[in-house]
Design goal:
The complex is a heterodimer of chains A (194) and B (231). Helix content of chain A is 68%, strand content 0%. By secondary structure, chain A is mainly alpha-helical. Chain A starts with a helix and ends in a 6-residue tail after the last helix. The radius of gyration of chain B is 17 Å and the shape is globular. Chain B is mainly α and 231 residues long. The chains are: A mainly alpha (194), B mainly alpha (231).
Chain lengths: 194, 231
Amino acid sequence: MTRESFLLRSTLAAGTAYGALSATPYITRALAAGTTGDIDILNYALTLEYLESTFYTLAIKQVSGLSAHDRRLAREIRDNEDAHVDALAATVKSLGGKPAAKPTFDFGNAFASADAFLKTANVLEDTGVSAYNGAAISIDSVDVLAAAGAIAQVEARHAALIRLTRGKPPAPLAFDKASEMPAVLKAVKPFITA
Amino acid sequence: MTDSALREIADDPSSRKRFFKMLGGAGAVGAATVLIAACGDDKKTTATTSARATTTPEANNASDLKIVNYALTLEYLEATFYQEVLDSGVIKDKKIGDLAKGLAAAEQQHVEALIATAKSLGGTPAAKPMTKFQDTIAKGADTILMTAATVENLGAAAYLGQAGNIKSRDILAAALSIHSVEARHAAALNELVGRGFGGRGGLEGSLPDGAFGKPMDMAAVLKAVAPFIAG
């Protein structure tokens, strides 16, 4: 497949599946440049997005007693996380890299109740924001940086919406934390089994 | 969680229309020119994204200073708005009052951080702009919250629009840590006014652009905030 047809395909996939057509030229520009360092960062982000995507997919199936509001929110976030997975995997490939494999996850008792689900969602989203903020400054390509920023913003919005649902302050800090990769991987390690 | 009165306003197309008339109203060009002058900016330079490796340290500093002062101007607008809302006593609901206090405090911290950053670059921080929020505030809590919800979406888009232009890693880190907070404010306020996720672009909704936040460039942002700038 030529790069042109690849770009077109990923644009169409992201745009038609998620109604984000206006945003996708921006994302696909990210496919034009980058380095090995950027591939590593993208694969790190991809792993986190797999985690989130799987988490919400399972939650929608398994959590009993989710309110209509919370179910709507979980579905919307899952759709966003799926779009992030697709965009990041496509970007890694376009840079000549191999997308990280989807890990196997175990979310323990996170789906035992709506409260447990929302509490874990809160942790995952806040961790996601700090992970993007921490990794973004090491991105070489301006276009990959822009794409990472576009995703980070949506993670922050998810975090705020989940927090509001829990009756927690949506933005507890004036400056969001930036976490380095080891700290983030440690935080999500309990959920990754393989 | 969502107040039904707020939802009503959010669903009322006539109030929404009025709001956008206000955002894009007459006088925008003149005020934007003033604001650009205040930022020491030049429209021609705002769209470049690829100069990172080829310019001198001095040019990088100057470029970052422009972005920092642009962000500072936006933060001054937000901080002033929330402070005037609090001072007006218009907000009677304790929960909303507490929210406004939290927002005012956060934006004031952003102002102070950006002033310090401008100075660290050897520059002069942008002056606090003269603002005109009286009409918005006089319309009451619902209009105030709708305005805040839109302005926070604008703020998030403005930061995202500059991320790729910032040369210094430290300033990029600072901008990113503010960017995601603006996004949190935006999502929370849009949810509270009952706008739903949105997702079709524009400045309405808790997830207005779907899965990928959409940037706005300096010219578009300055045009959008122009109605709030006096002079």
